[in-house]
Each structure stands twice: as structure tokens, then as C-alpha cells.
Specification:
CATH class of the largest domain: Alpha Beta
Number of helices: 17
Helix content: 25-40%
CATH topology of the largest domain: TIM Barrel
Number of strands: 33
Radius of gyration: 25 Å
Largest sheet: 9 strands, mixed
Structural class: alpha/beta
Bound molecules: adenine
CATH superfamily of the largest domain: Metal-dependent hydrolases
Number of domains: 2
Distance between the termini: 50 Å
CATH architecture of the largest domain: Alpha-Beta Barrel
Length: about 600
């Protein structure tokens, strides 16, 4: 039966490793004179590390006196294992390659990644090949397979059927299924979800939950159904609830949910056993990465009162143990993969030097050489195609037979509230005057990329002055269009299509106020993370000037068509109420 492995070992590699451990053969690399953070015993120890190939052969007092190995003088430095991100979404405008190079330079040497954008954008066979190509990098990119599309898209549900998912589950690079956002369907007996989760368990892979806001009673049901970890606790009580029910508890501090200050000061005095706690950045938008990645989590947790050694354990040995690979990674000991960091001191988690697989890969935050990964042209996520007809502003008109309409009110970057508003209509049933006579309403539409259907509605509290915004970056992988001026909305969408996908904002005269090409499937950019940091700051600035009242708008664009968040979402079948799974207003065919 399969279980997770990081790299596997050949007979020849084993022979070299054991010979070097015995002191009979030379190591390839030595880290000498440093203070090693021993995450197993929770102590700092003066010790040297000998590395052969991509593994550690020896930890201890033995001093290297040979001439062949590369010797790294770690005198005065703290030596730690590479960091592990157990729950990543490597596609928040950046693509998985750009993500990998950025976080590796900051000391994260293993990331377990969501496959959602890939599975929605590619054929299954291509997804498996992409995993194989990413596995050639010195940073280990492992994967978590979704059981549901996280959006109400009946036409895409087949991508989550038992046959394709169970095939992909056999990949050695897949370590988990989840996060199970549509957990309600799962516990209510959705067959594909049930079979896929059971198949994962049968081969010792994990099942990650997404139990936002659930009660003790519901959490019991989810644990009985098989969830093994969850990262949705937003306060100490919710974190303790998970620990007490035997769920690995992943503490989150992301761009959208910067929760450490709300969790840690209260949680720290109460936890007696940290061995089943992990930490995650949970897919931050580019700006966050300016402050670091897992290194930032460690620093922040220590600032908020966590014992420093515990903070390191939460991002090294704990996630390695959770995924069942602690014999291979997550600590500095013989036989482990040589992912080693040199820090100036324990309170400075951003590494001066990063060693991955036994080779120096980064110094002072910069990669020593460019990573070689798959080319996007080969991966099968081409730029957005132009529709074969021009975008018609009338597509954004809302028609109803009722006297009221379910408006989405944006309560914060992620959550919408259902506000039923009275509407006036013309003889054809078209809603008139609602946006024009309001200060803070916009039209909002999810439009199928080929122009086959449109889901129309109104959104409140998004902007007071936005003429037109269009984005091919959405949870549904269709086009999102928002604005107070339908011709400007159409112009923004035309421009998105001209640039191969991305995010565009235009004014009433259709001048482009903001433009970000996202040419990888219309969902991810090929720009560097630094370029995306500047561009996403500009997006925030432009939207703010147009009266957008929230932070992290990139997440708003992503999540307006995701069905895992309260209350109303855009979907292929219409405006959809997450809790009741009701269609509040149907979508309209344009063919
Ligand atoms: N559920 C989710 N799906 C996609 N990206 C995310 N980032 C954080 N949570 C996410």
C-alpha cells in the first residue's frame, strides 16, 4: 500500500550514505561549527553535519579533516531544517514556478500545494505530468487534490469524479486530498467525494478539512468522516476544539486572514502539547511575500509569545510527521534529505544560506541560480481566447419577474450578505435605475469565457465610482465583470481578452486605469513576484481611489464565484446561496 515518500533512495545512494556515516568515505558537503536546532529533542546543540548526495549522513562532533568536501563554516550561526508549508495555494496571481523560486530563497524547501487552478484549467493527464516536472526542482512541490470545484459549476464536476481523482491519487507527489470545502455534500453522501476520500485513506494519504466556523457537534461529524487537519480556526477556542478532537491544527496567518494576533496570545498559555500544530500562510497575495513566507510566520509567532524552538518545530518536524515523511525530512539527522538553513541567530528566521538536496541554492535571500521548470506553453494553460463575437453591454442587463432582487452586499473582502432590494423594471422585465440611482451599487456578472451564458446581479459596497473592471482571474475560471457603466464593463472585458487574460479597469471614456496580464490560462502571470507586488499595490491604489472600501481585492475577484463562503455567489447556474444551496436568480443563455 502506498504511503508518502519525499524522494526514495536507490541501493547505490544507500551504500554511499552508510559508508560516509561510518567515516569510511568522504562527504560531499559539511556544515561545521554551528549550533544545530534539534527539532526532535527540542534543544540547541553544537554539532557538525556531513552530507552525501542529497542526504545527511552524520550529525555529531566528528570534525572533517579531508580535502574533497565543500565545507561551510557555520561558526556563530544557527543551523535549522528547511521549512515546510503544509497548505499552499501557489497561484495568487503568481504561478507555481515563481512561487517556488521566491519561497525557496526564504528557506521553505517543501510546499504541499492546492491543485485547484490546475485541475480547472488543464486535462487530468497534463496535471500529472506537471506534478512530475515540478518534482525535478530542489524545492519539493507536493500536491493536495481537491474533491470538489469549490464553486457551483455542475458542468465541471466531472473533473472531480472517482476515476480521474483516484488515478491522480497514485502519483507519489500527491500527499493529501482536500481541503474539503464542500464538506456538507461529503457528509451528506456525495459518492465521488466519499469514494475519493476513502481511496486516499486506503493508501495512507491525508484528508484535509475546511471547517470554517463549525460547531463542536459538526466538527465531530467531520472528524468521524475522516478529516485529519484543518486550518480554519480564527481564535484560540476554535484551535483548541480541533486539537481536542484529534485534528492536526494548522494556524493561519494569511493576507486575507492575518489571524495570529487573534489566536496566539490566548492559545499559547493553554496548549500543553504542540506536536499536532502546524502553521500556514494559506495562499497570500503578492504583497505579503515582501515580508517573507514561512520565515515571516516564525518571526511573527515568536513576537506574539511563542517559544522560539516550538515555532520552528511547527514548520519543520510537525508537518513532516503529519504527512508521514518525518523519517526523510523535517529535521537534521542521518538519512534525512539535506535541506539545511543557516541563520544569523534563532530569532532571525530568514536564512542567510539555503541548502536544498545537499546543494547551496540561495544566499542572502537570492537564488544562486535560476530554477529550471516546465515551460507554460508545454503545460497546457494557454492564454485566454477572444470570443468570436464582440462583448455586448446588454449582456450585463438584469432581467427578473419579481419585484425585489437578491443583491450581494460585500461585507469584507471574502464574505457577501444577501440583501433583498426592491427593483423597478421596464416592459421587457429589465431592471432599470437601481445602479444609476444608488451611490454604492455596481452591476456584477460572471460570463462564460466563450460567451455561452451569463450570471447577472448587483453588488453593493464594492465601489462608488468604478466604471468597468474585468477579470479572468476567478475561482470559477470564467470572466468576472463589475462596474457602474455597462459599456465600460464591455470595454474592460474586450481588453482582458486582447491581452490574453488578466485584470483590467477602465474609466467612463474607456481609458485603461489598470492592467495586469495573466497569460497562464488567464489565471496566473508569468511576471516575477516582485513585479506582481508592484502591480497588486497599484490595483489596491486604483480601486481605493474608486471608492473600494476593503483590503486584499485580489481575493474578492477570486472568491465572488467560489461557493464555499457565505452568503451569495456567482455561478454557472445563477446567483447561488451557499448555505441553502439555492439558486436565487438563474443565469441567462446568450446563445
Ligand atoms: N480555498 C481557497 N481557494 C483558493 N485559494 C485560496 N486561498 C486561501 N484559501 C483558498
Amino acid at each position: 500500500m502506498a504511503a508518502n515518500t519525499v524522494r526514495g533512495i536507490t541501493e547505490q545512494e544507500w551504500g554511499r550514505l552508510v559508508a560516509c556515516a561510518k567515516g569510511k568515505t568522504e562527504p560531499d558537503l559539511v556544515v561545521q561549527g554551528g549550533t544545530v536546532l534539534n527539532v526532535y529533542s527540542g534543544e540547541l546543540m553544537e554539532a557538525n553535519l556531513w552530507v552525501v548526495g542529497n542526504r545527511i549522513a552524520y550529525l555529531g562532533p566528528r570534525v572533517y579533516e579531508g580535502t574533497q568536501a565543500q565545507v561551510i563554516d557555520a561558526t556563530g550561526k544557527v543551523v535549522t531544517p528547511g521549512y515546510i508549508e503544509p497548505h499552499a495555494h501557489p497561484f495568487q496571481l503568481y504561478n507555481p514556478m515563481r512561487y517556488a523560486e521566491t519561497i525557496l530563497a526564504r528557506g521553505t524547501t517543501l510546499s504541499v500545494n492546492d491543485n485547484l487552478m490546475l485541475v480547472l484549467g488543464m486535462e487530468f493527464g497534463q496535471v500529472g505530468r506537471f506534478f512530475e516536472q515540478m518534482a525535478q526542482l530542489p524545492i519539493k512541490m507536493m500536491w493536495s487534490l481537491r474533491l470538489d470545484p469549490q464553486a457551483h459549476l455542475p458542468e465541471k464536476k466531472h473533473k472531480f469524479d472517482h476515476l480521474p481523482v483516484s488515478r491522480l491519487l497514485k502519483s507519489p507527489y500527491v500527499w493529501q486530498v482536500g481541503e474539503v470545502t464542500d464538506w456538507k455534500s461529503w457528509i451528506d453522501g456525495d459518492e465521488a467525494m466519499r469514494d475519493n476520500a476513502l481511496s486516499a485513506r486506503a493508501i495512507h494519504k491525508r484528508v484535509e478539512g475546511h471547517a470554517a466556523g463549525v460547531s463542536w457537534e459538526t466538527l465531530n461529524v467531520l472528524v468521524a468522516a475522516g478529516i485529519t487537519a484543518d486550518h480554519e480556526a480564527i481564535n484560540a477556542e476554535e484551535a483548541l476544539r480541533r486539537l481536542r478532537l484529534g485534528v492536526w491544527t494548522t494556524l493561519r496567518h494569511s493576507s486575507l486572514r492575518p489571524d495570529f494576533p487573534a489566536i496566539l496570545p490566548e492559545l499559547i498559555p493553554q496548549v500543553k502539547n504542540w506536536s499536532r500544530v502546524m502553521m500556514t500562510t494559506d495562499g497570500p497575495t503578492p504583497e505579503y511575500l515582501q515580508n517573507g513566507y514561512t520565515d515571516f510566520l516564525i518571526r511573527h509567532a515568536i513576537e506574539l509569545g511563542m517559544d522560539p524552538i516550538t515555532a520552528y518545530q511547527l514548520v519543520t518536524i510537525n508537518p513532516a510527521t503529519y504527512y508521514g515523511v518525518d523519517g526523510e525530512i523535517g529535521g537534521l539527522a542521518p538519512g534525512r534529505i539535506a535541506d539545511i538553513l543557516l541563520l544569523s541567530n534563532l530569532l532571525e528566521p530568514t536564512p542567510e544560506l539555503v541548502i536544498a538536496e545537499g546543494r547551496i541554492v540561495a544566499k542572502d535571500g537570492e537564488l544562486v541560480e535560476q530554477l529550471k521548470g516546465p515551460t507554460w506553453a508545454d503545460v497546457g494553460m494557454p492564454p485566454v481566447h477572444k470570443m468570436d463575437v464582440p462583448v455586448d453591454p446588454a449582456w450585463f442587463d438584469v432581467y427578473t419577474e419579481a419585484d425585489t432582487f437578491p443583491v450581494m452586499r460585500l461585507a469584507n473582502p471574502a464574505i457577501t450578505r444577501h440583501v433583498e432590494m426592491p427593483v423597478e423594471k421596464d416592459a421587457s422585465g429589465r431592471v432599470v435605475g437601481l445602479v444609476e440611482n444608488s451611490e454604492d451599487l455596481c452591476y456584477v456578472s460572471l460570463l462564460q469565457r466563450g460567451g455561452a451564458w451569463v450570471c447577472n446581479g448587483f453588488i453593493q459596497n464594492f465601489s462608488t465610482q468604478l466604471a468597468g473592471l474585468a477579470s479572468s482571474y476567478t475561482g470559477a475560471r470564467e470572466h468576472l465583470v463589475i462596474g457602474r457603466d455597462k459599456t465600460a464593463m464591455a470595454a474592460a472585458l474586450e481588453r482582458v481578452q486582447e491581452i490574453g487574460g488578466g485584470i483590467v479597469i477602465v474609466d467612463e471614456q474607456h481609458n485603461v486605469l489598470y492592467e495586469l496580464p495573466l497569460v497562464i490560462g488567464g489565471a496566473m502571470g508569468d511576471q516575477t513576484v516582485e513585479e506582481l507586488v508592484q502591480s497588486s499595490k497599484e490595483l489596491v491604489r486604483v480601486l481605493k481611489a474608486l471608492g473600494h472600501p476593503h483590503y486584499d481585492p485580489v481575493y474578492t475577484l477570486l472568491f465572488l464565484s467560489s461557493a464555499h463562503l457565505p452568503e451569495v455567489r456567482l455561478s454557472s447556474v445563477g446567483l447561488f446561496e451557499m448555505k441553502t444551496k439555492r439558486v436565487l436568480h438563474p443565469s441567462r443563455s446568450l446563445r
